[in-house]
Amino acid sequence: MMQRIFILLVLLVLTSSKEKSEETYVKKTSKPLNVLMITVDDLRPELNFYGANHIKSPNLDKLAQQSLVFNRAYCNIPVCGASRASLLTGTRPTRYRFINAFTKKDEDHPTAISLPMLLKQNGYRTISNGKIYHHKTDDAEAWDEIWQADKLWNYALLKSQEIRRNTQRGLPIEAAEVHDSIYRDGKLALKVVNDLQKLKSSSQPFFLTMGVTKPHLPFCAPKKYWDLYDRSKIELPESYQQPKTTPKKAFHNYGELRKYEGIPKKGDLPEDLAKELIHGYYASVSYVDAQIGLVLDELKRLKLEENTIVILWGDHGWNLGDHKLWCKHVTFETALRTPLMIKVPGRTKGQTTDAITEYIDVYPTLSELTGIEIPKTVEGKSFVPVINGNESKKDWAVSKFKDAVTLITGDLFYTEWTDNEGVAYERMLFDHAKDPLELDNLAEKEEYQQTIAMLAKELREKWGKNFLKENKN
């Protein structure tokens, strides 16, 4: 009897030791998740998985089928430099921080631990490829490597290059019979593919980025992508109007576009030119879709996708004639709403969510997914619960541009233009349940004044505790 008990005790100890050994082995050999972050400049959520059916983007469509797609993601400021610095620090723009395209994280928020710096501090190899921050050398200490292709606004044709040299911006479009790799984003794709091949054999986790520059102006793409579209079937947007009820401050002269050759210096664009620009935008999206496809295919071929988070976002929306506007720089939904999707191994498979999400929420989400503590400076809220299939407790976002500050809550888009003291001097309110194109400003209607008062209070509660403070940190 005693011998039998002894044998059982020995077996129990051995089994327990084996389980502990296996547990330790799993902990030691399980690698942290890699992160591949793809950023696309000026990309509207005008894609098939958002309900459109005219832009050909098969690789983005495929990625969406493997991801969680956010139907209501919003940038915190509709201009590239500021939007990127805000997202990569997880902090809100204020009246004095993250203002315009030329924003530098190092100047506006030097004490914030950026997302790439956080990952680098926690053992990740960090590589900045293409346009991640607006300035190549911004937050340079956060990266193990920074790479960009030759010229930011390169043209393929000699005649286009000559026009560019002799004018402010050059032509707004180009369709050339050239290989994809001649243009900047084609070179970028090859660099990222090469990085993946090198990183495959590394035991170090990676934060690898792909900063795509198109469909930013000028709309340059190989001719085969232009040939995907019939311009005679392209229509101007339904919202091609500027209602009198909308404050004039809500509109602008789209100076970014007017710097290009052949664009009138004032007034509406001729209809043929407007459709040519829309055509160029579509072609540029199809071109960058192909480049993103090369990278995603290589990720799969190398069997890295099984342990890699893929997140794709556009830095802000873009107007393609909406409200007779072009470019960004406004607080209409067309400039604020953005494409956002995240693919997490084993957890996403083509789900969609209507949860309102701000770009400052990206940082804490990736921190949580990689198991790294979120720094105290981060103001966003992780959307990991949404990835896990739970409902979001957050149903609002705040965006701003210059004096205009917008609260997005439920179906309501409420904008105030405020002075340095936070006092409103102009208002705009749209109810997307009734007016998705934002053509009927409700802010001056008597029956909405109680709603306006409520929204004004909520806006100030949510625009950030340092919104009016000149101290950048």
Broad CATH class = Alpha Beta
Q: How many individual helices?
A: 14
CATH topology: Alkaline Phosphatase, subunit A
**How many domains make up the 3D coordinates?**
1
Explain the overall architecture.
InterPro entries: Alkaline_phosphatase_core_sf, IDS, Sulfatase_N. This is Sulfatase-like hydrolase/transferase. Keywords: Calcium, Hydrolase, Metal-binding, Signal, Transferase. GO terms for molecular function: iduronate-2-sulfatase activity; metal ion binding; transferase activity. There is one protein chain. With 473 residues, the protein is α/β, with parallel strands linked by helices. It has one domain (32-390): 3-Layer(aba) Sandwich (Alkaline Phosphatase, subunit A), CATH 3.40.720.10. The chain is built from 14 helices and 19 strands. A hairpin with a 5-residue loop joins β18 and β19. Mean pLDDT is 93; it is low at 5-29.
Task: Write out key terms for the chains shown.
globular; alpha/beta; Sulfatase_N; 8-stranded mixed β-sheet; metal-binding; iduronate-2-sulfatase activity; 4-stranded antiparallel β-sheet; about 475 residues; Alkaline Phosphatase, subunit A
Please specify the SSE layout and strand pairing.
Blueprint: H1 2-29, E1 34-40, H2 58-64, E2 68-70, E3 73-74, H3 80-89, H4 105-108, H5 115-121, E4 125-129, E5 145-147, H6 158-166, E6 173-176, H7 184-199, E7 206-212, E8 219-222, H8 223-226, H9 255-258, H10 271-301, E9 308-314, E10 319-320, E11 326-327, H11 333-336, E12 337-338, E13 340-343, E14 351-353, E15 357-358, H12 362-369, H13 384-387, E16 396-401, E17 404-409, E18 412-418, E19 424-431, H14 449-462
Helix pairs in contact: 2-10, 7-10
